[in-house]
Write a structure and sequence with these properties.
With about 375 residues, this protein is of the alpha/beta class. Helix content is about 35%, strand content about 25%. It is built from 10 helices and 16 strands. The strands form 4 sheets. The protein has a 6-stranded mixed β-sheet with strand order 1-2-6-3-7-14, with helices on both faces. Strands 4-5-16-15 form a 4-stranded antiparallel β-sheet, covered by helices on one side. α8 crosses α10. The radius of gyration is 24 Å and the shape is elongated. The relative contact order is 0.18. Bound molecules: zinc ion.
Length: about 375
């Protein structure tokens, strides 16, 4: 497993660089082909190609489908390996994308191999979908993964687990981004202040209003992440804008936050507001993962492993599949730390454990 992980990490696969990403996609295709799965490469014009793999032993007809979902793209530009080489030390494997989430893909590959070698009769067809743009919002893969999820009875997401104990992610916040653009009127701040409408003042007043919508207990947050406005000193600002980060645990809270945002009215006379954007990923609510988690927990305990769960403030492609009402279990990937950071690594001991857990989930779901 470590040798495969090394090969996979050493083919860099940045979301924004198609050629290297495609090389990584072809490497993965080869690994699954060698294990006699049916592989199709779904070509993309701008992003790396997506990879769909399906497998079912030829003994009977499948009575449904299970989806194993993940992404092979990473946040690291090509060349990162020079500063951040793959290395194994004291039970950890370091390198770009090890934790998020190439080790998860390796686990899925070996879970399939374990099922094949042990000749466990499967009830359902297994489809593995490895996409190329999760780290940049899944624009080119969303339709594909939603379509595949809709044909599935359950979705297993190989995103990293949480913390040193490898907690599975049974709920995730919905995540969005909105732009608040304020249009005022410029004027000389000294000669004609009465003729100006200060867009920055309007934006500041709106932000003060919006800030009060935060409800940490309920898990609803709205944060101004970027603000800009004005042109120069002496000039009353004609325009100003803010980029807002939106999050919520529940679909109901997501809808009401969006509604509130889009019904904002100007505070200063003559100012105009333009609000765009909203939630990109709906929340993954626990009601869509609880049953699969109970199953995983019981399977893990039969293997002598203790499995716990957690809620995550960030989203993944599991948010899309759960929002369709398809049972989704996320965070089944590696145990480790440092996603998107220079110390990104996985605990090597967890690789076979998590592969076995996935194999047993696939055999019993
Ligand atoms: Zn990820």
């Amino acid at each position: 497993m470590l040798a495969t992980l090394r090969e996979l990490v050493e083919i860099e696969s940045p979301s924004l660089e198609k050629d290297p990403a495609d090389r990584c996609c072809r490497f993965l295709a080869g690994e699954w082909l060698r294990r006699k799965a049916i592989v199709s490469i779904i070509s993309q014009k701008h992003r790396g190609d997506h990879l769909r793999i399906s497998w079912f032993p030829r003994t009977s007809r499948p009575a449904g489908q299970l989806l194993v979902l993940g992404h092979y793209d990473t946040v690291y530009p090509a060349g990162t390996l020079a500063k951040m080489p793959f290395r194994i030390t004291t039970g950890r494997a370091f390198g770009p994308g090890t934790f998020d989430m190439k080790a998860g893909i390796v686990q899925a590959l070996f879970a399939l191999q374990a099922l094949q070698l042990s000749r466990i009769p499967l009830l359902k067809r297994i489809v593995f979908l490895w996409t190329s743009d999760e780290e940049i919002g899944s624009e080119s893969s969303r339709k594909l993964l939603e379509h595949e999820a809709q044909r599935s009875d359950a979705v297993f997401v190989l995103e990293p687990s949480l913390g040193p104990r490898g907690l599975l992610k049974t709920s995730r916040k919905g995540v969005g981004e909105a732009q608040l653009l304020v249009h005022g009127r410029s004027s000389h701040a000294g000669l004609a202040p009465e003729k100006g409408i200060n867009a920055i003042h309007e934006l500041a007043a709106q932000i003060a209003r919006i800030e009060k919508w935060n409800n940490l207990r309920q898990g609803v947050t709205i944060n101004s992440d970027i603000v800009s406005g004005g042109t120069r000193a002496n000039v009353i600002a004609e325009s100003a804008q803010a980029t807002l980060d939106l999050r919520a645990w529940r679909a109901g809270d997501m809808h009401s936050l969006e509604k509130r945002l889009h019904s904002l009215k100007p505070i200063h006379r003559g100012a105009k507001l333009l609000i765009t954007g909203g939630f990109d990923r709906p929340p993954l609510e626990r009601k869509h993962s609880a049953q699969l988690f109970a199953q995983a927990k019981s399977l893990a305990s039969q293997m002598g492993l203790k499995l716990s769960e957690a809620a995550a403030g960030g989203g993944s492609d599991g948010n899309f599949t759960a929002a369709l009402g398809i049972p989704t279990l996320d965070g089944l990937g590696a145990v480790g730390d440092g996603a998107h950071a220079t110390h990104e690594h996985i605990l090597t001991k967890s690789l076979p454990e998590r592969a076995a857990l996935l194999a047993s989930l696939l055999a019993t779901s």
